[in-house]
Amino acid sequence: MCRYNEAKEIYSTFGIDTEKAIDTLKNVTISVHCWQGDDVVGFDSRESLSGGIQTTGNYPGRARTFEELTKDLELAFSLMPGKKKLNIHASYALLDSENVGRDEIKPCHFAKWVEFAKKHNVGIDFNPTFFAHPMVRDGLTLSSPDEEVRAYWVKHGIACLKISEYFAEETGIPCVMNIWIPDGYKDIPADRLSPRARFKKSLDEILDTPYDKSKVYVTLESKVFGIGVESYTVGSAEFCLSYSDYKGITPLMDNGHYHPTEVVSDKISALLLFNEKIALHITRGVRWDSDHVVIFDDETKEIAKEIVRNNALDRVFIATDYFDASINRISAWVTGVRSVSKALLFALLQPAEKLQKLQEEGDFTSVMALSEEMKTAPFGDVWEEFLKREGTEKNYLSVIKDYEKNILLNR
Ligand code: RNT
Ligand code: ZN
Asked: What residues flank ligand 1, with Cβ below 6 Å?
């Protein structure tokens, strides 16, 4: 008997239907961030990365142009099973002249991205880029006390709403537009309120501009701290959650953006009770918001479990967000996205109802024993069957190593 059929039988003794799990996973969309391919550099300003985030390593082969980045993405996409969406930043605009500021970018600057998305039959998610730019003054954008700076970034936000609408119209798939600003202070501020009041005002100015809410979901991402911004972050968790609620937009949690012992997996159920939709940036922080490549680790599994067990696969916008320049970037992309898929499949292969019932009965002895038993069930065989049905190569490393030899090392 083939290994999958055996696995199917073993899972069925726990009341789990592997066919149903595979069918469900097939239709889950993961929004793949483009910025793993070029170390978050982008095409528009080529300023070095700022905003408290950092890419480390100098593995050869970084994509330097739209052509290189999309060629790499194409390979990465082909090695990721399941439904994908493309997630790009405003800094990946293809400008016709050096003089187009981020406050005046237009849909036409993203026409080639739309072409790429259509070719691959995927939707596009978007992010205004409030970092790595000369108009970031003293580390501030939408919360800046300098009216010229603040107005510039408000215009950028409005320009991005238009571009997001364009993506949704062109692809026929709603666009998630995520707002994250790096604003904050290195040391203890004298006034914590005013920057937050200005951020609120700026967001109001952006979001009071009419846009089609059936096509664009605006999300707001919070953060606890960044490099050089250790003492105060304007867009803190409380600010962003409260603002999202007040304005009826969607909160976004990045699991690198909390104190190290805080876990996003525990926050998902709370947010689901009060929000129609929620959004996630799945990453792996090591000691800080280091954006290591996502692996099939406990917290990724626990996040997936929360989405699946709460029947929220259609309410959570799942996106990846990591950037590692110390290993092959395409492998990083694929390993991270596959890890998210794996975690979702793992969650779909748990006896959820049984475990929930045991908890209600107060039988935590059985909850623990059964949960542990499931860890050694033949999960890998079901994962391989999923890859096979999706027509995705199991051993992606050899494909990537060939590409490295033939393409990346010649850059
Ligand atoms: C930064 C945030 C943000 C960025 C990307 C590039 O800490 O996580 O989402 O990583 O927008
Ligand atoms: Zn993020």
From this structure: 35, 40, 53, 127, 180, 221, 223, 254, 281, 289, 321
Pocket probe mutation, ligand 1, options 91, 281, 292, 324, max atoms within 8 Å of Cβ: 281
pLDDT at 238 over 90: yes
Domain boundaries, the chain: 29-348
Q: 227, exposed or middle or buried, with CB in 10 Å at 0-12, 13-18, 19+?
A: middle
Q: Is it the case that residue 23 has pLDDT exceeding 90?
A: yes
Per residue in 271-300, pLDDT (tens digit) is: 999 999 999 999 999 999 999 999 999 999
CA dihedral 231, 136, 127, 339 (to 10 degrees): -50
Q: Is 351 helix (H, G, I), strand (E, B) or coil?
A: coil
Ligand number, closest to the Cα atom of 35? 1
Domain 29-348, CATH among 1.10.10.10, 3.20.20.140, 3.40.50.1240, 3.20.20.150:
3.20.20.150
Q: 223 C-alpha to center of ligand 1: Å?
A: 9
- What average pLDDT score do residues 62-78 get? 98
Nearest CA to ligand 1 atom 6: 40
| CB-based burial label for 158 (10 Å; 0-12, 13-18, 19+) | middle
**What DSSP element (H or E) covers 317?**
strand 316-320
